[in-house]
Specification:
Blueprint: E1 8-19, E2 22-33, E3 37-41, H1 48-55, E4 63-68, E5 71-72, H2 77-81, E6 84-87, H3 99-109, H4 114-127, H5 143-155, E7 161-165, H6 173-186, E8 191-196, H7 199-205, E9 208-213, E10 216-221, H8 223-227, H9 232-240
Parallel strand pairs: 3-8, 3-9, 6-7, 7-8
Antiparallel strand pairs: 1-2, 1-4, 4-5, 9-10
């Protein structure tokens, strides 16, 4: 059972977050149906991470409501967590543990035990290509392998929804290609929202794009619709390059 509604797996309804007079995000609304890969695109400081932290339940909005599969993140946090896999940017890993030890620890914390836990560890081990490092300390792993471990922990409980914040940041070109292949494979069975400021990422994996700038949602459509008659780079700059302050003179958002 995934929740009160299965029409949309991720919903943002009028999300806003203020820090005093500073606007992090304001009145952001969108809905993502089951099985869609969506890129949350914006320049650094646009408000992407703030939005994703709210959608993941790590940050409370100043106003508005976030839902996963019809579950209110604020009031049904634990139930919503069961269907969510979250990979934050530079997500915390236990450097003194091996990937195997960490996956066992996190699996047990989520109530996955015994043969079921071992089966899930084997499956994410294969999906994330961790065979060579499963018993090496995480602190000694490369950035690419650390990112794979982060993805493995997000997938361990077989969630229906994946939210990932800048998942390829710091990876080399080969690692990026491997990661994008993983995302497209996962998109066959899961709903995925990933934030990025890398335009190639959008073109490589996403079937829909949300563009945010200065904490406001400016575009919601397909990559082809974003490009229009120009390149994605040109369209992105037209949306985000020279926007003025709002009528109240408030500055833009931060991550």
């Amino acid at each position: 059972m995934t929740g009160k509604s299965s029409e949309f797996m991720i919903e943002a309804r009028g999300l806003s977050k203020y820090y005093g007079s500073f606007v992090a995000i304001e009145d952001i609304s969108f809905s993502i149906p089951r099985g869609q890969i969506v890129a949350f695109l914006g320049p650094n400081g646009a408000g992407k991470s703030t939005t994703m932290k709210i959608l993941s339940g790590f940050l409370a909005p100043s106003s508005g409501t976030a839902y996963l599969a019809g579950l209110n993140i604020s009031t049904d946090r634990l139930e919503a967590a069961r269907i969510l896999g979250y990979l934050p940017e530079n997500g915390p890993l236990y450097d003194n543990m091996t990937p195997l030890e960490m996956l066992r620890f996190l699996g047990e914390a989520r109530g996955v035990e015994g043969s079921h836990l071992q089966r899930r560890i084997d499956e994410v081990n294969e999906a994330c290509a961790l065979e060579q490092v499963m018993e090496k300390p995480i602190g000694k792993l490369s950035r690419g392998y650390r990112q794979r471990v982060g993805l493995a922990q997000a997938l361990l409980h077989d969630p229906e929804v994946l939210i990932m914040d800048e998942p390829t940041a710091g990876l080399d070109p080969n690692q990026i290609q491997d990661f994008r292949t993983n995302i497209k494979q996962l998109g066959k069975s899961k709903t995925i929202l990933l934030s990025t400021h890398i335009l190639q990422e959008v073109q490589a994996v996403a079937e829909r794009v949300l563009v945010v700038h200065n904490g406001r949602l400016l575009f919601d459509g397909t990559p082809d619709e974003l490009c229009g008659s120009s390149t994605m780079e040109e369209s992105f700059y037209q949306l985000t390059g020279n926007l003025p302050l709002d009528a109240n003179g408030r500055k833009g958002a931060q991550e």
